[in-house]
Design brief:
- This protein has 508 residues and is α/β, with parallel strands linked by helices.
- Among the domains are: 117 residues, DNAb Helicase, Chain A (Orthogonal Bundle), CATH 1.10.860.10; 224 residues, Rossmann fold, CATH 3.40.50.300.
- Helices cover 51% and strands 12% of the residues.
- The chain is built from 21 helices and eleven strands.
- The strands form two sheets. The protein has a nine-stranded mixed beta sheet, sandwiched between helices. A two-stranded antiparallel sheet has the order 2-3.
- A hairpin with a 4-residue loop joins strand 10 and strand 11.
- Helix 2 packs parallel to helix 4, helix 13 crosses helix 15 and helix 16 runs parallel beside helix 17.
- It starts with a helix and ends in a 10-residue tail after the last strand.
């Protein structure tokens, strides 16, 4: 009984597939001819549609050749009409089959109006995209039926399909045209007005740190920010603090005119190194001021457990989402970010950390520098697509440890070229206390005891001055100043805070 049902289903699918295979791909030759005729009659029409279309967008091969010839001639500053193109296209076998130069004159003669040229172009591109979607669907089906490559899992096929679909959706976008200065100024004015109405008076998403917000103006939409440092400097701790602060500050209100004012933001944290539970444990320790080591061992007092419960309740109200999928590709990350924005809304993305991401499935190679370039470009594209700031953590090369001054520089970025180029903001985290604790002065040959003691005292003074101090070095900022910001760092709870040197407590 079951076998016969399956056979019937297969026969229905096969008959439906045969019927579908007889259908012609979506196209409209009349619209293509009308657009080409309009361009040949008035080359100014090409200025309206030249950025919207390429020759491959046309269905008829002869129309592809004609559009390509028009583009070549107009880009040289020459007039493209039936007369000037005749000697070029008469030699083309495809155009010759439909009449050669006679066909060009027919295109011009049949033009009714050039006013609808942009509508014609939109129709041609839409039909092209539908043909590409059909091809993509057939490719997905064929790959799913291929059982020879056992390493080609369904997850990898989904990633490839999503990457192709994304590429198709973003190639030659027609909606991103030229913006007038008037429109751009109006948008900037609205952003300034919203910043004025916010309590923080920031244009971007707050980091929760006074001096960082002041220097950066908050985290701006569509920006790619890099936070880099050597191990044990506190990269993850600082990024986690920023993510939590932004999510905690999230507030949505309306002004008297009904305009929506949003403060802070909903945050998506990609934790490629730690599990979601470990990351949540860090935040719980920081918020409750109970050592994470004591939490792990279960050695907590009743009063500490009450603080944990209060902090856990506070955290449950925060719009912070964690994705701890291991070995995530840039394509998979983009897919998950889009889903979160669609389902919950999204204002800020954190990636911990960049070197643990993998490149697009179709572009992986043995060249790690090229792969990192693809990843950073993908993150920048994601920031622009979702219109949110993306903060990506990055490792630094070991050459930092070889210098006497351990402060990081832009050249210390691992696989640095593309990271520095694509980022709008590059920041480093540096804790001098970490190195001073490990660099005890040793007596030099023939050094007088009093001189050695002076060096020891200077070292101890530097160590005391750097206690609980972290430097956030803004080494690149595309839209603002660079400089060094000092923060208070509490290693017991992996917590950063604003530093106030005017008070003796040296803390919050």
């Amino acid at each position: 009984m079951t076998t016969s049902v399956i056979q019937n289903v297969h026969s229905l699918v096969e008959s439906d597939g045969e019927e579908r295979s007889l259908r012609e791909a979506p196209h409209n030759l009349e619209v293509e001819a009308a657009l080409l005729g309009a361009i040949l009659r008035n080359n100014r029409t090409f200025e309206q549609v030249g950025d919207l279309l390429s020759s491959e967008n046309f269905y008829a091969p002869e129309h592809q050749r004609i559009f390509s010839a028009i583009k070549q001639v107009t880009e040289k500053g020459q007039i493209a009409n039936a007369t000037t193109l005749a000697h070029i296209l008469d030699a083309d076998p495809l155009v010759k089959e439909v009449g050669g130069s006679t066909y060009l004159y027919e295109l011009v003669a049949n033009v009714i109006s050039v006013i609808n040229a942009k509508d014609y172009a939109s129709t041609i591109r839409d039909l092209y995209l539908k043909r590409e979607l059909i091809g993509l669907g057939e490719m997905v089906v064929n790959e799913a039926y291929d059982f020879e490559d056992f390493d080609d899992t369904a997850e990898r096929q989904i990633e490839r399909a999503e990457h192709r679909l994304y590429t198709l959706a973003t190639t030659g976008e027609v909606d991103r045209g030229v913006t007038t200065l008037k429109s751009a100024v109006e948008i900037a004015l609205v952003a300034a007005e919203q910043a004025y109405q916010r309590e923080s008076h920031l244009v971007g998403v707050t980091t929760g740190f006074r001096d960082i917000d002041q220097m950066l103006g908050g985290l701006h939409r569509s920006d790619l920010l890099i936070l880099a440092g050597r191990p044990s400097m506190g990269k993850t701790a600082l990024a986690t603090n920023m993510a939590f602060n932004a999510a905690k500050a999230y507030k949505r209100t309306e002004d008297e005119s009904g305009n929506v004012i949003e403060e802070g933001g909903k945050v998506l944290f990609f934790s490629l190194e730690m599990s979601a539970e470990q990351l949540a444990g860090r935040i719980l320790s920081e918020r409750s001021e109970v050592s994470s080591d004591k939490i792990r061992r279960g050695e907590i007092e009743n009063e500490e457990f009450e603080r944990l419960a209060i902090a856990a309740h506070e955290m449950s109200q925060i719009p912070l989402f964690i994705d701890d999928t291991p070995a995530l590709t840039i394509t998979g990350l983009r897919q998950r970010a889009r889903r979160v924005k669609r389902q919950h809304g999204l204002h800020f993305i954190v990636v911990d950390y960049l070197q643990l991401l993998q490149g697009p499935p179709e572009k992986r190679s043995d060249n790690r520098v090229q792969e990192v370039s693809d990843i950073t470009r993908g993150l920048k594209t994601l920031a622009k697509e979702l219109d949110v700031p993306v903060l990506a953590l990055s490792q630094l090369s070991r050459q930092v440890e070889q210098r006497e001054d351990k402060r990081p520089q832009l050249s210390d970025l691992r696989e640095s070229g593309s990271i520095e180029q694509d980022a709008d903001v590059v920041t480093f985290i540096y804790r001098p206390e970490y190195y001073l604790q490990r660099e005890h002065p040793t007596e030099r040959q023939n050094e007088a005891p009093d001189k050695f003691q002076e060096r020891v005292e200077r070292h101890n003074q530097r160590l005391a001055d750097s206690r609980n101090i972290a430097e956030v070095i803004i080494a690149k900022q595309r839209h603002g100043p660079i400089g060094i910001i000092e923060l208070f760092f509490d290693g017991n709870y992996t917590r950063f805070a604003d530093l106030d040197r005017h008070h003796d407590d040296g803390g919050f």
